[in-house]
Design a protein that fits this description.
The chain is mainly alpha-helical. Helix content is 80%, strand content 0%.
Length: 114
């Protein structure tokens, strides 16, 4: 959400560079956490999927962004149920439903996504 707010429709090189650096740092920290056993590889893939999904959505690649959201949130559902975090899993299921709804609605309206 912060990325979309900072971007505000126009590409500004400094904001783009800052967001890319922050995203890279977050991904490196998450990868390190996964290799140290704090995160599972599924959690790592889910978190990176959501980061990249947000990035591509804000850059006009709507279909790819929503697909990444759906896949990443589905992975999070699997992990949450394995950890008996049912309320969190339910919220993730709702996010998957929203992502799929957007994809199917656009396809049905014959308004192809970018």
């Amino acid at each position: 959400m912060t990325y979309g707010y900072l971007k505000k429709g126009a590409k500004r090189p400094l904001v783009e560079l800052t967001i890319q650096i922050v995203s890279a740092i977050v991904m490196v920290v998450m990868a390190y956490s996964a290799f140290m056993g704090v995160l599972t590889l599924i959690e790592l893939a889910s978190a990176i999927g959501i980061l990249i999904g947000t990035y591509v959505l804000t850059h006009g690649k709507v279909r790819a962004g929503w697909i990444l959201y759906a896949v990443a949130n589905t992975l999070t559902v699997v992990v949450a149920f394995k950890k008996h975090q049912h309320i969190f899993a339910d919220f993730q299921i709702a996010q998957v439903v929203v992502a799929l709804y957007v994809l199917f609605r656009e396809q049905r309206n014959r308004n192809p996504l970018k």
